[in-house]
């Protein structure tokens, strides 16, 4: 496909937040495809290509990249506003790790050659990326990964397996954490690599989930040979590179908008089934609304930190824990209210915007991806409460 160059744009950072929010809101309302709002499942790149290209033409595809690299160069507070407006309007997340992860990491840690080759292709949509982190025995404890990278002359040879690779079947390139030293602490012996998924020895197998969609894949590496310049950063620095964006990511994983959407779904389901007059149902909705208001206030406290330019600390993990509990509780009640309609995955035949079983299933992984709730609790216990390793 021909490259789409982002249109020149003004620096939006000097705008007052309210004016910036209004500009973003209006543009999304005018340009985001109506049929893609609040999708029932994660979009494949073919589904979201129209939106991807619209953002690319506008020059808004990479809001957090520096302007000199083709991004909007937004401050953290402006980036937060842009993401909030996208979530408020039901905008699906772009199915491309290149924008959110690879680009920022190459800008900070890549060579000039890597940046010149990859950044324009990410911005044009020519190259789509996926992530090779989790393994069958290294998910939440990612540092225990076993995929190996051995130096052989001018090449690296990769062997191992990755799993839960989101939309790997759509990707052109993959970034991979692999072990390059087995004689040091597990976090210190990991390096960061990039490679095309068409490299000989790579096999991608889709995984069908409970919702009957194949958004995840497992990826096998069998003597995959890649050039020496495929490493990003120094040897054995992969763990620190990978952690670079995690704390900022957690504020988005704790954003209240998924819970807002789920509660709206629940309220519409109650109305559709004519159960709004039942005292128990009314009390349930009111209780959840109060819990959501509490979480929104909690989220705002971290958002205010970002707006003040303060780094997020380990206590941001509490935000994701709280959101996971609330989001899943709402969808538990959706199933309870749906009755016989909860037994099928398809939307209700007389209102296809209601899909109780699918909503329930979609909420289950929230306490796992992005660092499981158990891992988040350990972070809080050790780094916030100072309880140490021997927690009874």
From TrEMBL:
Name the keywords, alphabetized.
FAD, Flavoprotein, Oxidoreductase
GO terms, molecular function = flavin adenine dinucleotide binding; oxidoreductase activity, acting on the CH-CH group of donors
Name the source's superkingdom. Bacteria
This protein's GO cellular component annotations are: plasma membrane
**Which Pfam families does this entry report, sorted A to Z?**
Acyl-CoA_dh_1 (PF00441), Acyl-CoA_dh_M (PF02770), Acyl-CoA_dh_N (PF02771)
Keyword Repressor on this protein? no
Stored InterPro entries: Acyl-CoA_Oxase/DH_mid-dom (IPR006091), Acyl-CoA_Oxase/DH_mid-dom_sf (IPR046373), AcylCo_DH-like_C (IPR036250), AcylCo_DH/oxidase_C (IPR009075), AcylCoA_DH/ox_N (IPR013786), AcylCoA_DH/ox_N_sf (IPR037069), AcylCoA_DH/oxidase_NM_dom_sf (IPR009100), Mycobact_Acyl-CoA_DH (IPR052161)
Q: Which SUPFAM superfamilies match?
A: Acyl-CoA dehydrogenase C-terminal domain-like (SSF47203), Acyl-CoA dehydrogenase NM domain-like (SSF56645)
What cofactors does the UniProt entry give for this protein? FAD
Q: Enumerate the spans annotated as Acyl-CoA oxidase/dehydrogenase middle domain.
A: 130-224
The Acyl-CoA dehydrogenase/oxidase C-terminal domain is annotated at 236-385
Question: Which first-to-last residue range defines the signal peptide?
Answer: none
List, for all copies, the residue spans of the domain called Acyl-CoA dehydrogenase/oxidase N-terminal: 18-126
What family classification does the UniProt entry report for this protein?
Belongs to the acyl-CoA dehydrogenase family.
Annotated protein name in UniProt: Acyl-CoA dehydrogenase
The species this protein was found in: Paracoccus onubensis
């Amino acid at each position: 496909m021909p490259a789409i160059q982002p249109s020149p744009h003004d620096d939006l950072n000097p705008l007052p937040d309210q004016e910036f929010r209004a500009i973003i809101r209006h543009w999304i309302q005018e340009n985001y495809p109506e049929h893609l709002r609040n999708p029932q499942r994660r979009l494949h790149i073919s589904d979201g290509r129209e939106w991807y290209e619209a953002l690319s033409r506008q020059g808004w595809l990479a809001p957090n990249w520096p302007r000199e690299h083709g991004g909007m160069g937004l401050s953290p507070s402006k980036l937060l506003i842009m993401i909030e407006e996208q979530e408020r309007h039901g905008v699906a997340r772009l199915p491309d790790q290149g924008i959110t992860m690879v680009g920022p990491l190459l800008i900070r840690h890549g060579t000039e050659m890597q940046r010149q080759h990859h950044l324009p292709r990410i911005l044009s949509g020519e190259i789509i990326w996926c992530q090779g982190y989790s393994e069958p025995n290294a998910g939440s404890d990612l540092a225990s990964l076993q995929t190996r990278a051995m130096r052989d002359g001018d090449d690296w040879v990769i062997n191992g397996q990755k799993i839960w690779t989101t939309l790997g079947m759509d990707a052109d390139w993959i970034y991979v954490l692999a072990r390059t030293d087995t004689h040091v602490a597990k976090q210190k012996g990991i390096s960061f690599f990039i490679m095309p998924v068409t490299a000989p020895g790579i096999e991608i197998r889709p995984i069908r989930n409970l919702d009957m969609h194949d958004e995840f894949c497992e990826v096998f590496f069998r003597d995959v040979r890649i050039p020496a310049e495929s490493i990003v950063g120094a040897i054995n620095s992969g763990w620190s590179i990978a952690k670079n964006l995690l704390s900022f990511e957690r504020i988005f994983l704790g954003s209240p908008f998924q819970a807002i959407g789920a509660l709206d779904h629940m309220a519409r389901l109650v109305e559709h089934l004519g159960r709004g007059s039942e005292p128990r149902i009314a009390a349930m909705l009111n209780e959840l609304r109060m819990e959501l208001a509490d979480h929104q206030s909690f989220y705002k406290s971290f958002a205010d930190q970002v707006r003040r330019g303060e780094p997020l600390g380990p206590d941001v993990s509490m935000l994701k824990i709280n959101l996971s509990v609330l989001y899943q509780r709402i969808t538990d009640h959706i199933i309870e209210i749906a009755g016989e309609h909860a037994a099928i995955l398809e939307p209700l035949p007389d209102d296809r915007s209601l899909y109780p079983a699918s909503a329930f299933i979609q909420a289950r992984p929230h306490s796992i991806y992005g660092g499981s709730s158990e891992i988040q609790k350990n972070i809080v216990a050790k780094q916030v409460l100072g309880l140490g390793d021997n927690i009874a």
